[in-house]
Amino acid sequence: MEPANNKKFLRDVTLREGLDTPQVRFSLDQRVRIACALEKVGVREAEVVAPSRVAADLQIAQALKRHCRQLKFSGLIYAYGIECGREIEQSAETLDRFDLLMPASLKRPPLGVDEKRRTLREAVKKAARWKSKFGVGIPHAFQSKPEIVIGLVEEAMHGGARRVTVYDTNGGADPLTVGKLIRKMKKRADVELFFHGHNDLGMATANSLLAVQEGADGLDVTVNGLGDRAGNASLEQVAAALHVKGYDTGLVLGGIRELCKKVADESSVKMSKLAPVVGEFVYWHRSPSHLPMPELFEAFDPRLFASLRRVSEK
Fold it and tell me: DSSP letters of 69-90?
């Protein structure tokens, strides 16, 4: 049985988070090729502007928009940054949407809950003047008290933000923790809710799935899981997991392996042969007990991802 609300949105952040992967560099031509490949498999939004390099990345976004007519481009702005007002103006003129970041952790500025809420309130007010599509992102959402996160969500919502993204910034959350916070937020906030998962404990896909099952409307993903440290929730794994559970992402699943190979080539970060969904060994059966009925030991039909089953005793 399909879930009641089975349409889920995957925002690809490869062209932002991917550049935080050690030793990864993308030229403009490489970014164009990756963006076009994302568009080809049905990705609707790509986040391409990092909060630490807004001006430079906006120039990249302008170039990408000339090559990809269907793909929407978005980016991030520090709500507490000195240049926040100017960056909001520039982003409103260039991007299809942007998110204002306000860390929930009390160890990151602005210090103090009241100061965080006041600063976010002012930034949201500036963004609302431009009549642009904008949201709010909350890093460290799962390292902080839920009431701090929910208070920031309420500031975002009251100021006119229509999307809120909660970040498992250090990749330390587990599915139960993620599900609990998402459930609380869905009861308190009438906004689109997105989850952004890191993979430091190997739980990014599971956390993303639980977020959706508890009501999240969308997820941030990267191709091949590129990103800080152990990376992010991978597009291919999340797309497969959601499909198996009856959700519709709108992606062309048959094109995802080709997309993953392209990003592996462009990034020079090789795909593991054991990688879920797209690895060479995923559809290769050797165990004698599997050989008579290999499909019984597969999580999904290989043909979904334009792959072929391989059965071999060697």
Answer: SS-EEEEEEETT-TTHHHHHHH
- Residue 293 lies inside a defined structural domain of this protein: no
For 258-275, the pLDDT digits (tens) are 999 999 999 999 999 999
Q: How far apart are CA 192 and CA 176, in angstroms?
A: 21
Residue 278 falls inside a structural domain: no
Q: Do the domain assignments include residue 173?
A: yes
* Residues 21, 14: Cα–Cα separation, whole Å: 10
Enter the tokens of residue 27. Answer: 């030229």
Q: Are 10 and 223 in contact (CB under 8 A)?
A: no
Q: pLDDT tens across 220-238, in order?
A: 999 999 999 999 999 999 9
Cα distance from N-terminal residue to C-terminal residue, the chain: 39
- Using CB atoms within 10 A of its CB, is residue 38 exposed (0-12), middle (13-18) or buried (19+)? buried
Q: Which domain holds residue 67?
A: 9-267
Give which of 17, 13, 15, 24 is closest to 270, Cα–Cα.
Answer: 24
> Measured between alpha carbons, how far is residue 32 from residues 15, 71, 251 in Å?
10, 12, 19
How many angstroms separate the CA atoms of 121 and 205, rounded?
Answer: 32
Instruction: Tally the domains of the chain.
Output: 1
> Rounded to an integer, what distance in angstroms lies between the CA atom of residue 177 and that of residue 173?
6
For residue 183, the domain's CATH number is 3.20.20.70
Cα 310 to the chain's mean position, in Å?
32
